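Hi there. Long-time user, first ticket. I'm pasting a complex I've been working with (about 698 residues overall). I'd like to know whether the download I got is complete or cut off, because the file seemed smaller than I expected. Thanks.
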Amino acid sequence: MAGKGTMVQINRETHEIAVKVVYYGPALSGKTTNLQALFQKIDPKVRGRLMTLDTKDDRTLFFDMMPVFFRTNQGVKVKLKLFTVPGQVMHESTRRIVLQGTDAVAFVADCRRSEAAATQSYWSNMLKNLEANGLDPRSLPIVVQMNKRDLPDARTDAELDDLRQVVSPVVVPAVAIRGEGVVETLHTLLTLCYRYLDPQFGFDREWHISEREFLEQIFSHVDLRGTAFGQTGTPG
Amino acid sequence: MTLSPSILQQRPPIGDLLDLKSFTEVCQSFAELYRVGLKVFDADGNKLVDVKVGNADFCGYIWAKPQGRVQCTATVSRVKGDVLPEEARPFGFDCFSGCRYVVQPVLYEGDLVGRIVFGPFVPEDAKGLPSSLTSIAPDFDAQQALVYQEKIRRASQASAEKIVRHFADILDVLVFTGHKNLLTARLHIEAVQESYRELQEKNRALEISFARLKELDRLKSSFLATMSHELRTPLTSIIGYSEMMLEGLGGPLTSEQREYLSIVMEKGEDLLQLITSILDISKIEAGRIKLVLSDVDLAQVTRDAVATVVPQARKKGIKIAYDPTHLPRVQCDREKIRQCLVNLAANAVKFTPSGGAITFGAHALAGDRVALVVSDTGIGIGEDHLDRVFDVFYQVDSSSTREYGGAGLGLAIVKSFIQAHGGEVSVTSKLGSGSTFTVVLPVRVGRGADIAREGAGPEARG
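Hi, the file is complete. Here it is re-exported in full:
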């Protein structure tokens, strides 16, 4: 097994692998919007309902969850669960609970300059909660989504390039409300996630799931129009 | 962590996600609406609901024949147990009796979680009874069986499939709702537990730092007690030798020398008093205050206390009135009560301008208590300071240029000594008009007070 915090659930009896992905970030940064956009874009054949746990005034109280699932050519069932955490400060304990045993994290940030302080503070908060859950932020797959690029005061492309120089995670720009960058974020994250889990759990060697199949099984059921993969139609 | 890492990933069997009693009621009304039986199984083949409509007589008649029973059991086990593909669509099952079932797998989040069995119904195009049924027994009464079969609904495969699909949609919503509520409840509990755990951690940290502070406070009091004691010893010599010189034991003095020595002695005594107060307070704070009880005449003690401030009062032109009433004898520590009264009297003199008056009073109260009252016509205490005048080192005017000196210990000592007796001290005051301090003492000191009997002697260090 890997570190105590890693939780990819493997059931050898039923040939099942369950992977957990968490969308983390400050309040109102667009975590739920990401899931809603994916819900629209992913074929209902490979996803379940978008479960939203108790919203009040359009704010997430507990979390959102959407399952995505497929069976590989070799008959292994892969279940992917996408979660969001509640962003408001007071739900700290819920954030920590949802983060437990995650296999990958998308950190959704509001890229406006005015939000820099909130972003920074939630980033530190996430690192702290990952460590509290026994997860190592240095090895865990993390993608930073710089959301709300359409708003005034948003950081420019040049500034995002600067950001890439100083932070180690991949930075993906997005306008989640229009569905832009949402698929790219998930694709980048799942690519990293595969590369993180494969050496530990033998996805390829033991389960005969190649990186290409892992991604294709999902993204061949995603509406790729308007995404970076839109032209070719086959990402991964 | 209170939570096993997988709680959000676990999903119980659908039977646990549904309220089976109300779900059965829904199934019953559904089955009655379409006049066809309905069964729901979970993934392990456990029957959750079984509603029979119209087939009781027909199936009962077949069941009565041994061969019928065997074949019926086989059909049921196929319908219930045959492995179905993970597809959310109906599959038809024919019964040897000519009836038919449609079975739809229940999929949730891509998993097979159970199956819906809709039937039996008679296919719309079926005519008569099949030979597979009529041949189960030589005495099979086809006429009778046909009469029974009439009670079972006729339906086309297409409409049966439509109905079962519709039911699967309803079930999907019910399972989703149940799952959602379950997760909400679980997470809620976990969040509360997690917050509770955090709170406990903080409480523990606070307790540790509180204990540390208490220990520091004890060390401070202990240090003060030791230092006061050590300071008093040489000071007693300074005062003693000054006194001896004033008495001429060291030879004759000039009037100037005499005057200077008087000042040395006077200031030495002031200092001694201050150090004694500090020693008292540090003893109180270190919890080393002990009462030496005897039956005391409070009128006498009050007179003694008044006597100590009379010279000062006279110097300032303050009138002193003392009106003793008859008081019962009170069990108390004479020396400590005297000191309390001296402190109150000295304060009254200190804060009353010349021409003012100080009144000492005493009276018995109900419930075997007595009150001692010291009133003055002095500067008074502002309302916002009243609560705190009994605090250690508290000064109403704590500026460096304040008019009235003192260490801020007098009233703190009064409060501690009176409380040690099980009594209480209170103050009323009006700025510019004066203050009234009232000490209430019980006639008998209750249990629980730290008491040394008369004659046991004060503390060794005292």
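A couple of notes from our side: The mean pLDDT of chain A is 89. Chain A is about 30% helix and 20% strand.
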